[in-house]
Amino acid sequence: MQQADLPAVLAVEQMAYSAPWSEGVFRDCLRVRYCCLVAERVRADGVVAHGIMSVAAGECHVLNLCVHPAFQGRGIGRLLLRRLLALARRQDADTAFLEVRASNRTAIDLYRREGFDEIGVRKGYYPAANEAPSAGREDALAMARAL
């Protein structure tokens, strides 16, 4: 991912998530040199997915894994996740962590198939999916796996 990718990344993020990251968050991730990847289709589609991960002290944390809704279910998220984890191993990480919305059964199933186990719950971690102030916040499942 490069600065020039940000408009396309933001578009995918906004289509896929009810509480998308801001451009500033993506810029900060690039600035601090997190592992920031995009998946592109060579034809006219351009960026169809992105992933961001931090690596430090023998651990990695998958911070964002997002696939354009029109391209979900094609294995792009799995490939991007595997690429991030391979990069983490090259940087001597031995454990991977992530959080996922408790309601996101598709993502939870993917992470479980990729060897992640639930290690806890983070209460009220995410803004409510419908973004109504009275709706409160949604829990996240914290997951981890050995690399």
Task: Give the overall shape, derived from the CA principal axes.
Answer: globular
Unreliable spans = none
Oligomeric state of the chains? single chain
SSE class = alpha+beta
Helix content range of the residues, please? 25-40%
* Major sheet: arrangement of strands: 1-2-3-4-6-5
**What distance separates the N and C termini?**
24 Å
Succession of helices and strands: HHEEEHEHEE
Number of helical segments with 4 or more residues: 4
Strand percent estimate: 35-45%
Radius of gyration (CA) equals 15 Å
Q: How is the biggest beta sheet arranged?
A: 6 strands, mixed
Mean pLDDT: 94
Strand tally is: 6
Task: Put the structure in a nutshell.
It contains four helices and six strands. It is an alpha+beta fold. The chain is globular, with a radius of gyration of 15 Å.
Q: Key features?
A:
six-stranded mixed sheet; 4 helices
Q: Could you explain how this protein is built, in words?
A:
This protein is α+β, with helices and mostly antiparallel strands. It is 30% helix and 37% strand. It has helices spanning 6-16, 23-31, 76-90, 105-113, and strands at 35-41, 46-56, 59-67, 95-101, 117-127, 137-146. The chain has a 6-stranded mixed β-sheet with strand order 1-2-3-4-6-5, sandwiched between helices. The radius of gyration is 15 Å and the shape is globular. The mean pLDDT is 94.
